[in-house]
Write a structure and sequence with these properties.
Number of strands: 8
Oligomer: single chain
Order of helices and strands: EHEEEEHEEE
Radius of gyration: 15 Å
Structural class: alpha/beta
Length: 123
């Protein structure tokens, strides 16, 4: 059997705060909460979830991996405003304003994008 993606792991200083932020953004429940690990996902049987683990390191540069989020064209701006209301901030990484994506950061500064509406992984 080939390998499959199980968790995306996000290092965090305040695990509960960051897990609750992403839980609200994605409308995923917290599936497991321990002192050194919090897991969120659509449900316990989903193939992929997000795991938050403690890290003493400060974020210093642009993320090497980030999440891309998408939504329908009719509610994209509404979703961006909702995410900003949950504690996200806008991030300038040198965009021209012509991009089909918007860069935001979660409460600990991890960048993520809200991309144009997508129907598949490649279009």
């Amino acid at each position: 059997m080939p390998l499959s993606l199980h968790h995306v792991v996000i290092d965090a200083h305040d695990l509960p705060r960051l897990a609750r932020f992403w839980s609200a953004v994605l409308d995923w429940p917290i599936l497991s909460e321990r002192e050194r690990e919090i897991v969120i996902g659509p449900d316990e049987t989903s193939p992929v979830g997000i795991c938050f683990m403690p890290s003493p390191d400060q974020k210093r540069t642009k993320n090497r991996i980030h999440l891309d989020l998408t939504t329908g064209a009719h509610d994209r701006e509404e979703e961006i405003q909702r995410i900003l209301g949950l504690g996200a901030t806008r991030v300038d990484i040198g965009q021209t304003g012509e991009e089909s994506w918007l860069v935001l950061a979660d409460p600990e500064g991890n960048e993520f994008c809200v991309v144009r509406p997508k129907q598949t992984l490649i279009s």
